[in-house]
Amino acid sequence: DLSRKKKQTERKLYITVTKKDRCPVCGMFVHPYQKWITQIQFKDSSHHSFDGMKCMCRLYIDPEKYDTTKIKQDIKLVLVRDYYTLKFIRHDKAFYVVGSDVFGPMGHELIPFSTEKNASTFLSDHNGLKILRFHEINAELLDKLDKAEKTVNLD
């Protein structure tokens, strides 16, 4: 039954965090930032929750730097939160706006959307610079976002 399969899929794409959960990258509590929460789930059923995309991307790029017990091959699922709908989506399906005037808990942030249309609308409404796919995000970009004050320079 198609509707049952859809419900089962939706159930999997859900994140629960406690008030004690801390981001393994920056150390901030995750719970206060519900709109920005992302999560990496591992094959051993453990997970790490994050207060934003940048922190999640840093661990994704170099897991062993932040958790010596994990390697990239241990990753089972990565969930991000669509900025408009607040639904959790797979990281590799999302479109990310970079360089907008919307700030996350850690400053300039990559803003995820489930559709390119919504990402494009957000980009024009919030002075974004570019729409990226997950495979285009790298440590150099994250460093530029962290160093930027008022505006992001992608050059």
Summarize the entry for a quick read.
The chain has 5 helices and 9 strands; from the N terminus they run H-E-E-H-H-E-E-E-E-E-E-H-E-H.
Account of the 3D structure:
- It is a single chain.
- With about 160 residues, this protein is an alpha+beta fold.
- It has one domain (about 1-145).
- Helices cover about 30% and strands about 20% of the residues.
- The protein contains 5 helices and 9 strands; from the N terminus they run αββααββββββαβα.
- The protein has helices at about 1-10, 55-60, 65, 115-125, 140-145, and strands spanning about 40, 45-50, 75-80, 90, 95-100, 105, 105-110, 110-115, 130.
- The strands form 3 sheets. Strands 2-1-3-4 form a 4-stranded antiparallel sheet. Strands 8-5-9 form a 3-stranded antiparallel sheet, with helices on one face.
- β1 (about 40) and β2 (about 45-50) form a beta hairpin.
- The N and C termini lie far apart (about 50 Å).
What's the structural blueprint in terms of helices and strands?
Elements: H1 2-12, E1 38-42, E2 47-50, H2 53-61, H3 63-66, E3 75-81, E4 88-90, E5 95-98, E6 103-104, E7 107-108, E8 111-113, H4 116-125, E9 130-132, H5 139-147
Antiparallel strand pairs: 1-2, 1-3, 3-4, 5-8, 5-9, 6-7
What class do helices, strands and sheet pairing give? alpha+beta
Count of the domains: 1
Terminal residue distance? 50 Å
Radius of gyration equals: 15 Å
Quick check: average pLDDT?
A: 90
